[in-house]
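Changelog note: in this version the structure field was regenerated for every chain. One regenerated record is shown below for reference.
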Amino acid sequence: STRDRPRRTRCRCACPTNTAVPPFVPVGSLGDVDDTTTDTPEHRPDMSPEALRERLSPQQYQVTQQAGTEPAFTGAYWDTKDAGTYRCVVCHEPLFSSSTKYDSGSGWPSFWAALDPAKVRLIEDRSHGMARVEVRCSTCDAHLGHVFPDGPRPSGERFCMNSASLDFVPD
């Protein structure tokens, strides 16, 4: 029934289209994190707040751990055109490919798809008086940015990420 469908709301952010926000995916609905990877405990980064403050820059910590946003056109990757993979700066999980990166004109690195939809969590974000969809790393829960429904084909989505939340590994 129409009553069971998620309500679509209008985007009130600074994006140029002010289009409808897609239905959000509640926390945890994309499944559990796969613990069967070859990543062993001795090779995983320490995720304690103290270790993260030591390992990350102040901006990386503020963006990934406190859901901050870097100013537009200031991040390291907003204009990067090199081939490679963008990983989570906190846990090093591969998240986006340069093959899906495009110039959205927003001043942040933008992608029309994640490497694998299960690698990111989409969460309703109603902070700052806006209705948006937040993107978080499924592995470590780091804040990455937001996704908007104004991207190019084939997905129509714009994953608008903070450079401070990403690490680039060239091919």
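Spot check on this record: The first strand starts at residue 9 and ends at 10. The longest helix spans residues 58-66.
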